[in-house]
């Protein structure tokens, strides 16, 4: 069968279901009794009647033309002697990449949740943050290191499960990719989680799956004995970075209102845009991955969201991806400055993990981001 014919008609979710039902009753007619043939005819007519109601509710005045297109697609499949219901279903499969990311990501989140709970359970003075639907805890000066370690380990597993094509690369390339991706993954994850859980709140941001950072309580960010003579400066710098960071990215997430599926696509796009110095094979793997995600996303927009023009939603994803990269550049430059200060041990641990990616980058590129420090 010519795939172009299916793509030309491009049935949405309701039409897809109707096609499967019509295909089922069409298969019952061949060699059937008169009674079964009449039942199939009545059911087929009922399906088309319900479909017309849907078109009317949608304000589609060309419903008869659209129905003829669907029937034409059905006949086209039958004329090519294909198994109609299986063929229709198979044409929905290009979104498999997003489904794979979905499964890998949510499995990773649940493992992180379990590990974080075991960690928090051992802290006697843990503080619960009030929320109507979630059980959340205030992050203190020590928990960010431990929750980052959990995220660090689980993100490696996530990459292997969500993007198995990358496992054919050398271990050195895989390490370079991971080290360039971990913090961008972290940024996307906690911004999306913050938007989903806290909405327009200007006080809290998610630090991990179960921990929350109170922006107004910067004393909680560091242990009492950390920072030395530069403690107040460190607090001011950290707070300024956080406020500026959120001022850039929060409005974009708020405006975009990305869905879970778009989140999975964004995680893939950010992986394909890392700044690590990678070889030609890795670049080729990223090109294939990007194309696969774009195709799946196009099908999602058309079939799941019913959008003919989805350029603005795709543009929102690309804008978020770009902003995350810019913020990452600021983060790296801030970290490089803190290397020469009396840095809190907790932050230093996270900074060292983040800066591992510099092993696979040209040294000049670490400071080449065109972003002014404020």
Describe the structure.
The protein is mostly helical. The chain has 2 domains: 3-91, no CATH class; 95-366, Retinoid X Receptor (Orthogonal Bundle), CATH 1.10.565. It is built from 14 helices and 4 strands. The protein has helices spanning 3-9, 13-29, 34-58, 63-79, 84-90, 96-121, 143-162, 171-198, 231-256, 260-272, 280-304, 311-338, 345-355, 363-366; strands at residues 128-129, 136-138, 204-206, 211-214. The radius of gyration is 26 Å and the shape is elongated. The N and C termini lie far apart (59 Å). Residues 339-344 and 346-374 have low confidence and may be disordered.
Brief description of this entry?
With 374 residues, the protein is mainly alpha-helical. It has helices at 3-9, 13-29, 34-58, 63-79, 84-90, 96-121, 143-162, 171-198, 231-256, 260-272, 280-304, 311-338, 345-355, 363-366, and strands at 128-129, 136-138, 204-206, 211-214.
Alpha carbon gap, first and last residue: 59 Å
CATH-assigned fold name of the largest domain: Retinoid X Receptor
Strand content: under 5%
Structural class, by secondary structure, is mainly alpha
Question: Going by CATH, what is the homologous superfamily of the largest domain?
Answer: Retinoid X Receptor
Instruction: Give the CATH level 1 class of the largest domain.
Output: Mainly Alpha
Please give the count of helices: 14
Q: What are the segments in which pLDDT stays under 50 over at least 5 consecutive residues?
A: 339-344, 346-374
Mean pLDDT: 75
Strand and helix order: HHHHHHEEHHEEHHHHHH
CATH architecture of the largest domain: Orthogonal Bundle
Largest sheet: 4 strands, mixed
Helix share bin: 55-70%
Total beta strands: 4
Strand order of the largest sheet: 1-2-4-3
Number of domains: 2
Shape: elongated
The whole-angstrom Rg is 26 Å
């Amino acid at each position: 069968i010519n795939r172009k014919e299916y793509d030309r008609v491009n049935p949405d979710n309701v039409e897809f279901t109707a096609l499967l039902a019509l295909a089922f009753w069409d298969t019952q007619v061949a060699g059937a009794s008169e009674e079964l043939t009449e039942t199939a005819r009545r059911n087929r007519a009922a399906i088309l009647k319900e479909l017309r109601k849907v078109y009317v509710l949608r304000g589609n005045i060309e419903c008869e033309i659209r129905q003829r297109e669907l029937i034409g697609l059905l006949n086209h499949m039958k004329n090519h002697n294909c198994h109609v219901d299986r063929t229709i279903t198979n044409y929905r499969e290009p979104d498999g990449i997003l489904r794979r990311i979905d499964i890998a990501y949510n499995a990773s989140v649940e493992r992180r949740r379990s590990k974080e709970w075991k960690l928090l359970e051992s802290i006697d003075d843990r503080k619960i943050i009030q929320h109507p639907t979630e059980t959340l805890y205030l992050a203190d000066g020590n928990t960010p290191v431990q929750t980052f370690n959990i995220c660090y380990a689980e993100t490696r597993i996530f990459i292997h499960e969500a993007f198995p094509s990358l496992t054919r690369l050398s271990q050195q390339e895989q390490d370079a990719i991971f080290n360039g991706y971990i913090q961008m993954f972290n940024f996307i994850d906690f911004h999306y989680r913050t938007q989903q859980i806290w909405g327009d709140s200007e006080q809290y941001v998610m630090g991990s799956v179960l921990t929350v950072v109170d922006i107004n309580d910067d004393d909680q960010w560091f242990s009492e004995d950390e920072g030395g003579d530069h403690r107040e400066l460190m607090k001011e710098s950290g707070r300024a970075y956080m406020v500026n960071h959120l001022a850039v990215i929060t409005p974009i997430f708020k405006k975009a209102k990305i869905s879970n599926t778009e989140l999975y696509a964004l995680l893939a796009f950010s992986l394909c845009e890392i700044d690590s110095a990678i070889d030609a094979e890795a670049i080729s793997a990223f090109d294939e991955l990007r194309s696969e995600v774009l195709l799946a996303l196009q099908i999602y927009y058309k079939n799941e969201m019913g959008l003919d023009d989805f350029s603005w939603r795709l543009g929102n994803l690309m804008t978020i991806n770009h902003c995350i990269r810019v913020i990452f550049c600021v983060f790296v430059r801030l970290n490089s400055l803190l290397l020469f200060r009396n840095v809190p041990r907790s932050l230093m641990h996270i900074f060292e993990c983040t800066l591992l990616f510099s092993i696979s980058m040209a040294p000049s590129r670490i400071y080449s981001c065109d972003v002014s420090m404020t």
